[in-house]
Amino acid sequence: MRILIANWGRRSAGGTETYLAQVMPRLAARGHEIGFCYEVDEPEGRPEIPLPSGTFSVQLRPDPPSAVARIRAWRPDVIYAHGFLDPDVESQVIGIGPAVLVAHSYYGTCISGDKTHKFPVERPCGRVFGVPCLALYFPRRCGGLSPISMIAAYERQRRRRALLQCYAAVIAPSAHMRREFERHGAAGGRVYTVPHGVEVSTAPGDAESTPSIRPVLQRSPDAAVRLTFVGRLDRLKGGRALIEALPRLHDALRRPILVTFAGEGPARESWERQAATLSTAMPDVRVAFVGWLQQEALAALLTDTDAVVMPSLWPEPFGLSGLEANRRGLPVVAYATGGIPEWLHEGVNGCLAPGDPPTVEGLADALIRCLRSLESSDALNRGSIAAAASYHHDRHLDALLEILEQAAAGRTA
Q: Which CATH class is domain 2-199+392-408?
């Protein structure tokens, strides 16, 4: 097949681009021709998403009609869409041929895209997107405080919801997201759960097939606890809650604590101030912000980590970075929101905190359970490796290709 992959940006920005960097070479390795189109060459300063050799590539803006003409001439069999900025551009691209959308986010199902009420406390929103959302936009702090921004956001998502009907199918990475898009009537109900995959090597002697177990907390009662946060530094990613949970964690474990934030985003400055204040009051608690890391540097950081924390306050569609941590034998601590409870199981490959609503106390308790378990056994490390192994890339690719082939052939059963 000729598979045109569409994304809003050309460069690495988050989990969607991580997924694309993994799946495109695998599709090419199975003999499929890959095309790639994108709206903007952003985020600035980030590395480009790597493309397989010989990939047809075109930028959609600033001249969408010319770009669309080039795509038509390339004649894709199916369009594998991962999100657009402009509904007009989306409409032109998916009008070329049968298209399948991946539900990486609350695309066309939420006025802000966050699916979270932020007042009086952050908690997941279970509403179906529509006109009544306008009445809750300000009282629930769904977005900003500008009426103009509210109307613009509503109109963009309204148009996206209408375009959901134009897709041959929607692929959801979790049952949670499948239900969300089914409720919104996407693709005439042709919504399929296909969880993301991770790299799990089975080659004899390959280090990735037998990740090292980290019994440091068992060996030394004075060893520092090493926690890592990986992702965008944004309010709803919960970094503030993690920092606020550290005093309670320190009081329970009586160990030094080092937390490393790997990522960039608008909340970094405020989180750095919050962390500096905490470290001044509690010198045994240190928080480092290392920015966005290349893959090799991130791998080195995780080698020196006891657990990964994903304190997302919004309902994560899946949480691929958590499974990537599990693959390395690292347990994950997260709120039970969105698709996370589908792969993160209490006491098996990490610990869950209540997510409706998420609280600092709940996160601290989950961290304490996780780290006390690591002090006494390596069960969470081994459980993490086993959990990741059940999400092998090949299984994901088999299911994905079946859906793409059905769409290309006009079969939507």
A: alpha beta
Cβ atoms of 371 and 307 closer than 8 Å:
yes
- What does DSSP assign to residue 162? H
- Could you say which residues of the chain have pLDDT below 70? 200-216, 218-219, 411-413
Alpha helices in 282-347 (DSSP H): 295-303, 320-327
Give the pair of three-digit tokens for residue 228.
């890592």
DSSP string, 106-128: -TTT-SSSS-EE-SSS-EE--PP
- Is the CB of residue 229 less than 8 Å from the CB of residue 259? yes
Instruction: Give the model confidence (pLDDT) of 34-48 as tens digits.
Output: 999 999 999 998 899
Pairing of strands 257-262, 33-40: unpaired
Report the predicted TM-score, pTM, of the whole model to 2 decimal places: 0.93
Same fold, 2-199+392-408 and 207-389: yes
Domains of the chain by residue range: 2-199+392-408, 207-389
Strands 123-124 and 116-117: antiparallel
The structure tokens listed for 137 are 């936009």
Q: What is the CATH code for 207-389?
A: 3.40.50.2000
Residues 6 or more apart whose Cβ sits within 8 Å of residue 223 = 216, 217, 255
3-class DSSP state of 153: helix
Integer CA distances (angstroms), 223 to 69, 255, 305, 371, 413, in order? 61, 7, 12, 12, 56
Distance CA 236, CA 200 (A): 30
Place of tokens 């041929």: 97
